[in-house]
């Protein structure tokens, strides 16, 4: 029987698991891993496949069965992190956006970052004015199809590309005009480099939004960028906090706390509520990793962080990679022949359809788009006006933080028409890829009446590897709508519950400590262990006094009571 158990255990340990990783160009990499394989092993396999050396900017993302996103931790077993059943499906994505993407050493790295930012543009995470959006889209056209050729590119050819969640005819004409007249002669590498330089100047560059609510119950998106912590509400950046001003991040349940210390010794606490405790923990871990990567000088300065001040409560986490400064120093030492790049401009793409994929998809009819002037990315005018150094207002722990309003209106010659009905809407990325007409309509219906998205689950269906059928899409839409209700009342009840749990936890730990002390006392007084540690304690005058004056009488009294109870039981 023992031999059968041992053979079964060895077979279980030697079991192989199939993994499929979706790359940034929507191709797939498939491999097998052992049960005990670490995340670093899988990541190294991917980087070898891509011929990538500047790999610290990238990571592997997956979605659990509860549709919560996670970054794969490289120091832990892949199988233990995946709660889903094999085969496992994951995505290769940019995890830490380069502070200056144009300064990356190798073209292959710049190309992968270009693909990521192109996805951000398509999914509504990168916002800008119409003029900037047209220029970015023209760079993509030049990189994918080269110079304008009247014989190959008929009238309206730019409309066959899906650069953004929504298009307008005016924007399409502007894209084609720039592509024809301004970008002729640029190689794909040059167009991609110019694209990165332009994208880096936008205020939502590097934003990976997390849906939350503030203390007043208003929807908000929290994000970590190469420059600091950002809060977006209603297409306005209401807070920007530099990394050196962030002193601490912690979470309790669904509540996320950000402690800020600004000049003149102003200290504030920003409080936000995530949809679920798992989402809040993911937000906290992302914040810890981003702050360590961008703020620290050396990876040796990284410390284990706890989500609570008490040792027995909360989660502990430690960033395990190199920091940005070390990555740049290492990149400067790379000396090899530039690897060959297989660009996927004309390969079918689920998330960014190219010119060979038929007509673009539209979320609303063309006539309606013209009527309401939804020309993508022209919004966030207020974000452009706010500088990175915009301070946040000092407030108490429970205060709300209103968004600073703009005094003037936009000039009529450059009308500001904001994506998603005047609200920052990365929720377009809740759509499965490939994007379908019925899914777009479902997304629009799942918004609140004021146009604010209930939640964001960007690319989750794509990352989970299950195409969304109509019933499943409706179920996801119901989950999103379920996240929206709730206000200050529910938050107050949640605070009371957390307080009760904290008290119970404290009592439990106190009882545990008393029990451990009692065991130690019994070992000291009743056992025959004669180690140096016990001998030194027993020979102290204080212990001898305690032993003879208190412990021995207590032991005799306890033994007497036990004998009395035993005699009573025998008599009955």
UniProtKB/TrEMBL annotation:
Pfam families linked: FA, FERM_C, FERM_M, FERM_N
Alphabetized UniProt keyword annotations: Cell junction, Membrane, Phosphoprotein, Transmembrane, Transmembrane helix
A GO CC term assigned to this protein in UniProt: adherens junction
Region described as Disordered: spans on this chain: 385-411, 451-471
Domain (FERM): residue spans on this chain: 17-298
SMART domains in UniProt: B41, FA, FERM_C
Subcellular location: Cell junction, Adherens junction
Gene Ontology terms: biological process: actomyosin structure organization
Described purpose of this protein according to its UniProt entry: May be involved in regulation of cell migration. May regulate cell-matrix interactions via its interaction with ITGB5 and modifying ITGB5 cytoplasmic tail interactions such as with FERMT2 and TLN1. May regulate ROCK1 kinase activity possibly involved in regulation of actin stress fiber formation.
Protein name: FERM domain-containing protein 5
Name of the gene encoding the protein in the UniProt record: Frmd5
């Amino acid at each position: 029987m023992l031999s059968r158990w041992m053979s079964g255990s060895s077979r279980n340990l030697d079991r192989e698991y199939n993994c499929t990783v979706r790359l940034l160009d929507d191709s797939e990499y498939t491999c097998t891993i052992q049960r005990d394989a670490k995340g670093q092993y899988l990541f190294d396999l991917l980087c070898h496949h891509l011929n990538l050396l500047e790999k610290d900017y990238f990571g592997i993302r997956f979605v659990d069965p509860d549709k919560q996103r996670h970054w794969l931790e490289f120091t832990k077993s892949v199988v233990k992190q995946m709660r889903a059943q094999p085969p496992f499906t994951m995505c290769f994505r940019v995890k830490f956006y380069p502070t200056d993407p144009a300064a990356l050493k190798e073209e292959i790295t710049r190309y992968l970052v270009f693909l990521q930012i192109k996805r951000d543009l398509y999914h509504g995470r990168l916002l800008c004015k119409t003029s900037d959006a047209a220029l970015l889209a023209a760079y993509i056209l030049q990189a994918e199809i080269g110079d304008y050729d009247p014989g190959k590119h008929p009238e309206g050819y730019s409309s066959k590309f899906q650069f953004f969640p929504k298009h307008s005819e005016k924007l399409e004409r502007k894209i084609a005009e720039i592509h024809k007249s301004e970008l002729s002669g640029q190689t794909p590498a040059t167009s991609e480099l110019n694209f990165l330089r332009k994208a880096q100047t936008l205020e939502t560059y590097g934003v990976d939004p997390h849906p939350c609510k503030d203390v007043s119950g208003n929807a908000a998106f929290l994000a970590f960028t190469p420059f600091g912590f950002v809060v977006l509400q209603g297409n306005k950046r209401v807070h920007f906090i530099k990394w050196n001003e962030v002193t601490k991040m912690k979470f309790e349940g669904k509540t996320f706390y950000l402690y800020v210390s600004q000049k003149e010794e102003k200290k504030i606490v920003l409080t936000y509520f995530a949809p679920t405790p798992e989402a809040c923990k993911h937000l906290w871990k992302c914040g810890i990793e981003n702050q360590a990567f961008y703020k620290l000088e050396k990876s040796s300065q990284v410390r284990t962080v706890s989500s609570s001040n008490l040792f027995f409560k909360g989660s502990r986490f430690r960033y395990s990679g190199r920091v940005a400064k070390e990555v740049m120093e290492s990149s400067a030492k790379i000396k090899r022949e530039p690897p060959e790049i297989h660009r996927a401009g004309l390969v079918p793409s689920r998330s960014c359809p190219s010119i060979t994929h038929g007509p673009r998809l539209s979320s609303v009819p063309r006539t309606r788009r013209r009527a309401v002037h939804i020309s993508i990315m022209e919004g966030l005018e207020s974000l452009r006006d706010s500088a990175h150094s915009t301070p946040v207002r000092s407030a108490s722990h429970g205060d709300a933080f209103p968004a600073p309003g703009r005094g003037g209106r936009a000039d009529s010659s450059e009308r500001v028409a904001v994506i998603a009905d005047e609200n920052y809407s990365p929720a377009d990325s809740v759509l499965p890829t490939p994007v379908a007409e019925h899914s777009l309509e479902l997304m629009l219906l799942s918004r609140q009446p004021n146009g604010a998205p209930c939640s964001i689950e960007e690319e989750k269906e794509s990352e989970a590897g299950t195409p969304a059928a109509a019933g499943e899409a409706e179920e996801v839409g119901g989950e999103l709508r379920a996240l929206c209700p709730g206000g200050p009342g529910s938050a107050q009840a949640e605070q009371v519950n957390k307080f009760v749990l904290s008290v119970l936890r404290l009592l439990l730990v106190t009882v545990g400590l008393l029990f451990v002390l009692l065991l130690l006392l019994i070992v000291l007084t009743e056992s025959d262990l004669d180690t140096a540690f016990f001998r030194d304690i027993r020979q102290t005058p204080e212990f001898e006094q305690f032993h003879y004056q208190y412990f021995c009488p207590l032991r005799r009294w306890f033994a007497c009571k036990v004998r009395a109870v035993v005699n009573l039981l025998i008599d009955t």
